Amino acid sequence: MKNRFFLVVATVAAVALMTSCGKVPQANIDAAVAAIDSAKTMQADIYLPGDFAALNDSLTVINQAVEAQKSKLFKNFKDVKVKADALAVVAGELAGKAVVKKDEVKAEAETLMTQAKALLEENKTLIAKAPKGKEGKAVLDEIKGEVTVIETSLTEAQTIFDAGTNYMQVLDKVKAANEALTAINTELKDAIAKVRR
Amino acid sequence: MRGSLIKKLVYIILISVFLGLLGWLFIALIPEPPLTELEQASRAVSQARDNNSVIYSARLFREAQSYYDSAMTSWQTENNRFILFRDYERVKMFAALSQKKAAEARKNTIVRANGMRLSLETETARLNAEIAAFEKVFLSLPLPQETVKKHARGKLLLREAEIDLNKGQYVSGNVKVTEANEYISSSYTYARKILEDYYTGYNRWQELVRATVDESRMSGSYAIVIEKIPGLCHLYHAGKKRYTFEAEFGSNWIGDKVNGGDMATPEGRYEVTKKLSGGSTKYHKALLINYPNKQDIEEFKYRVQNGHLPSDARIGGLIEVHGDGGKGGNWTEGCVALRNNDMDVVFRHSKPGTPVTIVGSTITLEEYLSAGK
Lengths: 197, 373
What we know:
Number of strands of chain B: 8
Helix content of chain B: 55-70%
Number of domains of chain B: 3
Order of helices and strands of chain A: HHHHHHH
CATH architecture of the largest domain in chain B: Beta Barrel
Distance between the termini of chain A: 116 Å
Strand content of chain B: 5-15%
Oligomer: heterodimer
Radius of gyration of chain A: 31 Å
Strand content of chain A: under 5%
Mean pLDDT of chain A: 86
Structural class of chain A: mainly alpha
């Protein structure tokens, strides 16, 4: 009687143990997927593409681990649960980092834009002061044309900036404009300095 | 009693061994899950993604991804079957295909990205050279503002393409360089066309200059030859070039003068009709020439008669070689302007009747263009 009782208890315990470890931690996996989606919403794929790709790789590993356990006679999803929870945490952190990075890029774009606008205005003033040496007028006409085009490009960059969809794109555009404006600025300053000497 | 106990024990051992064997057989018959194959496939897909196969080998990458998804779906389907009836062969096949396609995508990406990088480097270098040539050769031409703007737009796009090149973004770099090429090449082509059209008068210019220099040689006197494209004024004596000065012209200097107010400097064989200095000219010193000459008048009349010019058009006049030059660019209303010091020399050696020949250039278009490259 006593032996039978122990046998029943042992069987129930074994079944309980097997079923508790043998269930896919779907809620944990769903939470990890939701955290990845949230990171994407925060544009982690744009501002931290390498880290975001690593999240997807981790999710792939989890999905493989789930199927690997399902293929076994005695399933154990403990490791999957741990990995899914960790992924959710990392994805959550990445979403936060993406926001920070986005703000950094935005600030950089804003600074460059301000610099570009200041350079643009300075160049306009310098054009008025520029000497008309040999072929000076033609060169000035070219510079004026270039400045107008850069101004248009900066307006386009401002539109993208205001939309706030991709500050990286703004950064590339403004960097090119800044380079061009700096080259013009140097050219004009050199020309003015030569005349003063 | 004892014998029956031994018998029971033997039965128990035999049953245990049988059950153990049965369990071992059951476990042995469970197929091995294709985890290694799937891991290898997903690693290959990740590597392909990391080397930008999504961009450079989109089709192959999509195929690799799709085979991987099929492998996972097949694995899930097999896992839903009774454990002993599972067959992972299809899963393994899809995983192998995914790995193969991902490897192909990766390889193809390396080749394509290198090709695109090379093409981008070549194009940016070529366009930079074209920009330099344009600025050296064509910038002094009276080009429409639209053409100058196109050139500037192309230049800015080229800078953006160079940023992409440095960042390894060859696809967007190539898109920008293609657009830049359209702007830069169209402004280059337009400017070159203007010059080519202008150079159709080259043989006539050569004849005019030769005749003027011959005349100077035979008479042993001074003659003035003016070239618009290089912006030079040569003073010949007895057929030999004695002085060369920089000269400036009307703002619409390319081509012959057609009518009054067109801001063009006339082209042809003229001569000094009057020397002006002191209070009689506001440009330091001046040599008035006989524009319009007989040929100019005939051509003007022809244009009016054929409707190329309105009936109330004027032929213009008062064309001079004068001082106050050195301002840079071409700023006069059709006259030729020299620096005051240079004008003093030309003025000193000129008299009424001194030939003044104004042409486009004495060097060929090819020589001129190659000098700019």
